[in-house]
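As the work plan foresaw, our protein records have gained a structure token line. A representative record is set out beneath this paragraph:
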Amino acid sequence: LVIALLFLALTSAKLHKSVAEEEKLNEEHANDVYSWYTQKLDHYNPQLNDTFQQRFYDIDTYWNPQEGPLFLYICGEGACRQPADNSFVVNLAKKYNGRVLALEHRFYGMTQPKPDWSTENLQFLTPDQGLADLAQFAQEKSREFSEKHGIPHRRWIVVGGSYPGAMSAWFRYKYPHIAFASLASSGVVNAIDDYYQYDRQVFLSSSKSGPECPQRFINATQYIEKMINDGKRTEVFSKFGYDKDMVDGEFYYFLGDLIAGQVQYGARSSFCERLMALPNDIPTIVDWLADFGVEKGMSLKEYTAEFTANTTIDFSKNMRQWTYQTCANLGYFQTPSKQDTPPMRGANIELDFWENFCERVFGIEIFPDTTHWNDLYGATELASTKIIFTNGGEDPWQAASVTETENPHLIPIVIDCNDCGHCVDLGGDHSTDPKELTAARKRITEIFGKWIKDELKMERKYPSETKAALRELLSN
């Protein structure tokens, strides 16, 4: 598994985190210690009693059962790995004598409920089922710890980044009797089908390196578009490592990710420096972009519907499963900017492309009703408390998260610094961290400290599981 993961693309701007980013947050161990939990396949159909094995990690090194909080680290659209010892969630556990459990999301990594990824089997891959997995797992663990250590029924702090960041916020909203607080890092709680705001932010963030950086990329994109429109598509695709024909939108999605992935994961400065160091000659820039994609392990083939239609399970892959989640529920389809900035992506990647892409991949008409999903969970105005929303100031996903709110019980923190991108706060502390990032982590730590203290007080007063759900109400 470790070897296979190393060959994944390093810089995709798809919502799932790249391997490079995952390695900042998680660890691989020669003797990887994980456990298995027996999970229900369908939490909403009483006529179906099938189960599957769900992988989880348990870090209890720093835990004081009498007063230490429980952190539920939510793994999302990729193989789950043990949070690193110098990651933010483990550092929180160290400070507050806590315990961290990390649960792998169904259909990702080694947690495979079905023998393949057929469209029929993926019906069980929904955020609702994933949240219910977390609820069943966390509640049973709380009961287990209470019985084993003779402590009151303990609620959780849920932590996640990106899609798991959204799940963290949704979990606190939907299951307040299980979780008393949430950290939603880059939590994309607003399901958006036509997500042109992503492209807009790529332009704004890359412009921090000067207007020439995004303009050079735009010029190269337009040059490539003209080549394709002039009948040189085979030449273009071959230059970028693909010797077959493909739908234009698939190529433009790949092309846009060359810069978007760098912005998203905090490498904007380096990318722009290298781009602007080149001669201002478009063919030279195009050649460099092709080489850059190879350098970063990106594969044009993996952007095709043909590749994503493969139903064979591979623990190291997540493209098909995540595409299903976007096509079925969440959207987040990246389209060219439509506001006050020029588009960074090619023209042939509007919603009609994505609708066709979903149908080609899954063989059925499937497209998300994002309004329905947002009606269920409240989007950016979810009626909840004790949720911290953090976002990097350069992250293109921040428009789908909470960066400001009139709800006094939600705490948005925008970490506005150079190269502060997606889930930037979840990494470990380093001497080179920007002061804004250090300040944000300090503020989050202090807020959690108060919430943990308040919860322990209420826990002692109302120790039972039945009263756990009412602690905040009974405390007023």
In short: The radius of gyration is 22 Å. Confidence is low (pLDDT under 50) at residues 1-12. The chain is about 40% helix and 15% strand. The first helix runs from residue 2 to 6.
